[in-house]
Design brief:
Helices cover 81% and strands 0% of the residues. The chain is mainly α and 74 residues long.
Length: 74
């Protein structure tokens, strides 16, 4: 009888462990989705900033000679 009780207890522990592992997996999947969305938002912002920077550089190239570049010494 003792062996059956031990087997039943181990079986219950296994089910609990499997449920915890499944929950952890779902949480990790959720984190991956959040990080992917953040990466996508940051990539879009980088594109926007690069476009704006390109526009500013073009304006600087066509500006009056009284405007000097900060990086002209490099």
């Amino acid at each position: 009888m003792q062996l059956r009780d031990e087997f039943s207890q181990l079986k219950r522990q296994l089910k609990v462990a499997q449920k915890q592992e499944a929950q952890a997996g779902r949480e990790l999947e959720g984190m991956i989705v959040v990080y992917a969305n953040q990466i996508q938002a940051l990539a879009l912002k980088v594109d926007e900033l690069e476009s704006h920077n390109r526009l500013l550089r073009e304006q600087l190239e066509h500006a009056q000679p009284t405007v000097s570049r900060l990086d002209q010494g490099k």
